[in-house]
Amino acid sequence: MSSGPAHSRHQWSCQEIIEKVRWRHQTGRPLNAQAVARDDSALLAAARRYFGHWNRCLEASGIDPASCRPRRVRRPPGYWTRERIVASIRYYAEQDHPLHAHHMQQTDNALLAAATYHFGSWAEALEAAGLDPQQIRRTTPRSAEQIIEAIQSIAASDRSQLRDSVARRHHRALYGAAQTYFGSWAVAVTQAGISYEDVVGNRPWTKDSMMAVVIEYVAAGFPLEQAFRRHPRLKAAILREWGSLSRFQEALGSVRTHRHTGYGARLRALREHQQISQERLAKLAGVPLQAIQAYESDHCAIPLNVASQIARALKMSLDHLMRQLDPELGSVAQ
């Protein structure tokens, strides 16, 4: 069965996005951001990259955003009892629906609120339904794409949940998985097509915060320019504080802020030598297809943790891969 108009999964154009949105509208599929994040996160991410906001994408497609909001079922006062709450939780569990609080906030916020009111917390309501809250919390995404989808799902509901301190406290499993796959939470949010600066708000830059955010990007393998693109006020703040970028780079000490061009062509040559497609390498390495394409196009550097996954996929050691990508580089194991 066709899933809609044919389009390139990884090279979206503005017209393709609009066509897919109109197709969803014509076929009666939900167009609220939560629903799209759930069943076509690639479309949602592409729309946000092109239009900045999902509602602006809907407007560009000739659709009134207000008409796409999910209808809330109004239940009479006193509807929720402890028994009905437990029965509803068990129903969702039987349907294999994710039972993390942030997922339930999007799916059935009334149930979540009632459970918190009657049982004191969502965790206690899960226990009353015979479920293990700790086991549910430990359920982590198994691939980079799943992490990105989870982040986009949270963003569709409440972007404030993506602040580092909030995510670390309320989405611990996802936060830990994001650090493992992307090197840091901020980089994971950025890879999900979301401006991390928009998430943290317009708080004034301090000397420590400027150093911290740049080190976070560079340590994850991204060039300094990537941090400037994602944090528009950062470069100006650095120039005010240090007077020049060269002085700032000196202050960074041993942290490398440059990237090696040419990595992409060498990675492509290694992949093609083994007769592996980009799609296959992405699957074997557990990273999004878009990431492999970006690395091979030299659009961004390859984070060390991702390089390790690619090395395993290509059946070689990390040290050997890095030497192939950069012959002038010494052993990464030093």
TrEMBL record:
What is the protein's name according to its record? Answer: Helix-turn-helix domain protein
Per UniProt, residues of the HTH cro/C1-type domain are 267-321
Report the superkingdom from the record.
Answer: Bacteria
* GO MF entries: DNA binding
Taken from the record, one Pfam family name reads: HTH_3
Q: Which parts form a coiled-coil structure per UniProt?
A: none
Query: What is the scientific name of the source organism?
Result: Sulfobacillus acidophilus (strain ATCC 700253 / DSM 10332 / NAL)
Please give the InterPro entries that the UniProt record associates with this protein.
Cro/C1-type_HTH, HNH_repeat, Lambda_DNA-bd_dom_sf
